[in-house]
Design goal:
CATH class of the largest domain: Alpha Beta
Number of helices: 8
Largest sheet: 5 strands, parallel
Number of strands: 12
Number of domains: 2
Helix content: 40-55%
Strand order of the largest sheet: 2-1-3-6-7
CATH architecture of the largest domain: 3-Layer(aba) Sandwich
CATH topology of the largest domain: Rossmann fold
Strand content: 15-25%
Distance between the termini: 46 Å
């Protein structure tokens, strides 16, 4: 299936370069210049990826990203002339999958798009006759890798991709302390393009979702100056 990409960019010269680079790789690209047009477009038809400029004529790309993340996990790549660390951190913490600054290499942009799509394809739930319900055990957690889902105290957690991958990594080796850099290597497609603060942000939201299930348990441990680990049962 050909991936469909929504490009939200108000500069025609940049949009032409992006569109040519991506269509040359076999992608379908829909180009819009305004926030309002983008919201109408993705509500009308499914897309596999959003490429988003931050400075748009009728609004902020970051505000658009906030609204999108309230009810969608559509992968987002920010393409912006803003190259300050604060902008990059904020964009990633709001849920962007990658951040590319202008000027950019069209070939590198296409490679980053392919990396995001490859990763999200691996995480997509595959429901078939071989899928099985998660087994109940004496641990607090059950991982259903077929559906890319995790249960806590037999409650299905509503996790983002990054939350799922971080928790899955921690659960693969309970009690092991993972540094932020190690978690980034396991979870992010390009760790060099992300920031360690992003790990802290996702750990914070993970803890909140676990507390929603059981306020008495705090399975994720913070090891000051070292990183994070997870407990899977009482006494561990």
């Amino acid at each position: 299936m050909i991936a469909r990409i929504l490009l939200v960019e108000d500069e025609p010269s940049i949009a032409d370069v992006v569109e040519f680079a991506l269509t040359s790789e076999g992608f379908q690209v829909a180009w819009r210049t305004l926030v309002c047009e983008a919201e109408v477009e993705w509500a009308a038809a499914p897309f596999d990826l959003l490429i988003l400029d931050l400075g748009l004529p009728d609004g902020s790309g970051l505000e658009l990203l906030k609204r999108l993340r309230r009810n969608s996990e559509l992968p987002v790549l920010i393409l912006s002339a803003r190259n300050a660390e604060l902008d990059r951190v904020l964009g990633l913490e709001l849920g962007a999958d990658d951040y590319v600054t202008k000027p950019f290499s069209p070939r590198e942009l296409a490679a980053r798009v392919k990396a995001i799509l490859k990763r999200t394809a691996r995480l997509a739930p595959v429901l078939d006759d071989a899928s099985v319900a998660p087994q109940v055990s004496d641990t607090w957690f059950q991982i259903d890798e077929v559906r890319a889902a995790i249960r806590f105290q037999n409650h299905l957690l509503d996790l983002t991709r990054y939350e799922y991958l971080i928790l899955k990594t921690l659960l693969a080796q309970p009690e092991r302390v993972f540094s932020r850099a190690q978690l980034m290597d396991q979870v992010w497609p390009d760790p060099a393009a992300s920031f360690e603060r992003s790990v802290d942000t996702h750990i914070k939201t993970l803890r909140a979702k676990l507390r929603d299930v059981d306020t008495m348990l705090d399975p994720i441990r913070t090891h000051r100056g070292l990183g994070y680990s997870v407990r899977v049962r009482h006494g561990s």
